[in-house]
Amino acid sequence: ACFNIAHSSLMVAAIQTNDLELFSKSAQDKLHVLSRTKLIPAAQNILDMAKEHFALMATISGSGASLIVFLEDDIQSPEIGSKAKELWLKEKLESKSLVTDVSNSGALIY
What we know:
This protein has a two-stranded antiparallel sheet. Helix content is 47%, strand content 9%. The termini are far apart. Helix 1 runs antiparallel to helix 2 and helix 4 packs antiparallel against helix 5. The protein is globular. It is mostly helical. The longest helix is centred in the N-terminal third of the chain and has 16 residues. A hairpin with a 4-residue loop joins strand 1 and strand 2.
């Protein structure tokens, strides 16, 4: 638990300082990801593939079965999205890939 708490603090520092290397390191998890990826078909293969395609971070989003990938730019996003879809289809699962930008404006209430 201490490891994860420390790394969540690293993530805040990385975002505040725009340190992409620190951001990548901050995604490490020793409590949830390993056990949850075993429950999601193809998840570990997709996370590994995203990292091989230079993702800053690739991990489970929330409690699963969503995966989230952070990239420095969106050049690799179509390739990562299509390869992830192929890996899901091998497991006979449908998927959807969303590409969004990061907002610096914070939460907005309309």
